[in-house]
Amino acid sequence: MISRSHSETSSTISSTGTSAPVLSVEEARARVLAAVSAVGTEDVLVGDALGRVLAGQLVAPHALPRFDNSAMDGYAVRADDFGGP
């Protein structure tokens, strides 16, 4: 049971007409963190990773595609440079 002083919480009247405590952000965070625990990590193949959460940064070993690609890189040109309007 978590004890708290009157200054940490207050009451509000809910839509049902009952009094409900209003928690501070700090107390709400403390309650959530007290109710959960960290899980471990493991290496899995990409094909087995569906539905999992990445625990660290993933960096590609090389750029894809290995060449400049205007559809992906977003090159811009001026129409005047090509005789356009």
Structural class: alpha+beta
Instruction: Note the total helix count.
Output: 2
The secondary-structure element order is EEHH
The biggest beta sheet is recorded as: 2 strands, antiparallel
Strand order of the largest sheet: 1-2
Strand % is 5-15%
C-alpha-based Rg, rounded: 27 Å
Shape: elongated
Low-pLDDT windows of residues: none
Average of per-residue pLDDT values? 79
Fold and architecture overview:
The chain is an alpha+beta fold and 85 residues long. It is 18% helix and 9% strand. It contains 2 helices and 2 strands; from the N terminus they run E-E-H-H. Strands 1-2 form a two-stranded antiparallel ribbon. Strand 1 and strand 2 form a beta hairpin. It starts with 9 loop residues before the first strand and ends in a 12-residue tail after the last helix.
List keywords for this structure.
alpha+beta; 2 helices; two-stranded antiparallel ribbon; single chain; 85 residues
Secondary-structure map:
Elements: E1 10-13, E2 19-22, H1 25-35, H2 70-73
Antiparallel strand pairs: 1-2
Task: Provide a quick synopsis of the model.
With 85 residues, the protein is α+β, with helices and mostly antiparallel strands. 18% of the residues lie in helices and 9% in strands. The protein has helices at residues 25-35, 70-73; strands at residues 10-13, 19-22.
